[in-house]
Sequence to fold (359 residues):
Amino acid sequence: MKRVHNFSAGPATLPLEVLEQAQEELTEYQDTGRSIMELSHRSAHYEEIDKQAKDRLRSLLGLGDKFEIMFLQGGASSQFMMAPYNFLSKDQTADYIDTGRWSDKAIKEAKIFGNVHVPFSSSEGNYDRVPTQEELNFSDNPRYVHFTSNNTVAGTQFPTEPETNGVPLVCDASSDFLSRPIDVDKYGIIYAGAQKNVGPAGVTVVIIRKDFLEQADTENVPTILRYSTHVEKIFNTPPTFNVYMVNLVLKWIEDKGGLSWFKSFNEEKAQKVYDEIDADDFYRGAVEKESRSLMNATFRLPTEELEARFLEEAVEHDLYSLKGHRSVGGIRASIYNACSMGSVDALVDFMSDFRKRNG
Ligand SMILES: Cc1ncc(COP(=O)(O)O)c(C=O)c1O
Fold:
């Protein structure tokens, strides 16, 4: 077996231990004589997986009993629609902080349901930063404040939650979910497509605060698109294998030492990459230093020709998926939880060597 250094932005690298356990159990899950994919979602075995995954999320994030957890389909993109569908109407306003491609998509969807006020946008600077607290110009009485905690495309990340003085945050945490501790009491909803930090593509983790859920206005919302439907019970067939995988990843996160451990680990990895970028002016960070993401490090080389050569030679060193998002170009190294220190060291060594030969 040969595994490469995988810097894909998503679906992203998964812990080898998790893949190996899944491989071991693939054709026979526990004593069932069947794969987990062949078991009913109403079976005791699947119910136990669902419960374990929820218990683990509760404990890792410190959710207590104030939050409900759902495993939904439709990707994070469906949440762009589902959150305002449940919580925003024509006579109401929600505030949406615009820090990138995904925020912008969330804003477009929310506008279908109600008024959107944008308290800050970095679109004119090609989304090269997130706001400081002072720059946030909230509306008078927003229903909620939506933000994208990590901007996967640009490579920026909020260092901490924006302060909203009690207005619930609705957060697209797709690309930094469980990468560090968060202040859960500030959130009404946290949603994340699994395919970056917690599992394979196909399941979206949605966490909702109970007292916020009670405020939902869903009279005209189709049953399957109401959060309450999924909170009450497993409503329809969930992506069972994906939830099984998420549960294995959550166990792996626990075994490593939880979110504080990952915070330090992710900081150390990112520091190595950014130190290499900042060593001289051969590499150029694509975003403002204060806004840099610990998950997606984006940078440029002196010319596009050199960037193309960098990507070509990287593959020869088993360094894969380093091409920046098609909308921005350049290089992007996605170094989520499951990206090992060994992969980061290999990348940094290659960057250093490439600079010596081409700088
Ligand atoms: C921050 C963020 N939000 C939303 C999405 C869209 O997620 P999905 O493809 O699961 O709808 C992505 C995907 O890359 C993302 O990075």
Remarks:
- The pocket of pyridoxal-5'-phosphate is lined by residues 10, 75-77, 102, 148, 152, 172, 174-175, 193 (CB under 6 Å).
